[in-house]
Amino acid sequence: MEDKRGWRIEMGQISIEISDTILRACPDFRMAAIACRVKNKPYNEALWKEIDRFSTHFASAYRMEEIKLRPAIHATRETYKKLGKDPNRYRPSAEALCRRILKGQELYRINTLVDLINLVSLKTGYSIGGFDLDKIVGDLTLDVGEADERFEAIGRGVLNIEGLPVYRDDRGAIGTPTSDEERTKITTGTSRLLMIINGYSGEEGLQEAVTYSVDLLKRYADGSEIESWYPCNELSTDNLF
Questions:
Q1: Which of these, 94, 119, 166, 214, could form a disulfide with 145 (CB 3.0-4.6 Å)?
Q2: Is 169 helix (H, G, I), strand (E, B) or coil?
Q3: Residue 197 main-chain phi, psi, to 5 deg
Q4: pLDDT at 192 over 90
Q5: Is 64 helix (H, G, I), strand (E, B) or coil?
Q6: In the predicted model, what is the mean pLDDT of the chain?
Q7: Structural domain includes residue 240
Q8: Contact in structure between 113 and 38 (CB atoms under 8 Å)
């Protein structure tokens, strides 16, 4: 990996660069992204019936000690360790959601888009960034959080992101696998969505996660003008920089 450079994807609306620092810590890292127009609502009854069915099945299928062994969660935790972050103190969001179900705690009801993204995260084990695309300034870079870097985590206040994988736009940090940032969060007024599915476990499963996400977006958020990206078996040299 020492000779491997970072790589970049180009979507119609935004480009995303992955730094060499991330790829050194996790050579298998791949990601998928979805950008689309949406109609968000505070609550969708049909979606929550689907979430409740999944939660019931999940609670009967897993034990607490098995959650961190799910491939996508395990790989995210291992990347945290390589970057010097304690995954038990700063749990990846997918792991935290799974643990809530097994503890018998209710899942958060935020709004349809956030609830939908949480369902995808629960089902796949991926920590997923969900952003209001109109609030992102410029393009994105995935790199590593720095000491004293300002990050107002949604619903949790200031978060120490030093050593966490972090997406930044031209104004600063907006997302980590543990939490996203207040500035670019999804609200009921969000009309353009960016979803980033982070595959620290590699490419396997990403295409299926995109297909599932797009289906949910169409059914529950009137998703339209959908643009999605996921990696081919091998990254083209056109993606390298």
A1: 166
A2: strand
A3: -100, 115
A4: yes
A5: helix
A6: 92
A7: no
A8: yes
The number of distinct structural domains making up the chain is 1
Distance CA(98)–CA(123), nearest Å, equals 9
Cα dihedral 178→181→184→190 (10° resolution): 60
Q: Retrieve residue 29's tokens.
A: 């890292």
Does residue 236 lie within any of the structural domains? no
3-state helix, strand, coil in the chain (%, to 5): 35, 25, 40
In a domain, 209, yes or no: yes
Report how far residue 112's alpha carbon sits from residue 95's, in angstroms, rounded to the nearest whole number: 21
Give residue 7's pLDDT: 75
User: What's phi and psi for 57, nearest 5 deg?
Assistant: -65, -45
What pLDDT score was predicted for residue 12? 76
Q: Name the burial class of residue 25, with classes exposed (0-12), middle (13-18) and buried (19+) by CB atoms within 10 angstroms of its CB.
A: buried
User: CA-CA distance, 85 to 169, in Å (whole number)?
Assistant: 22
Read off the pLDDT of each residue in 133-150 and give the average, rounded to a whole number.
97
Q: Residue 155 sits in which domain range?
A: 7-231
Q: Which of 154, 193, 184, 180 is nearest to 39 (CA)?
A: 193
Tell me the β-bridge partners of 197: 32, 128
Taking the CA atoms of residue 195, residue 199, residue 205 and residue 208 in that order, the dihedral angle to the nearest 10 degrees is 10
Which is it for strands 15-18 and 165-169: parallel, antiparallel or unpaired?
unpaired
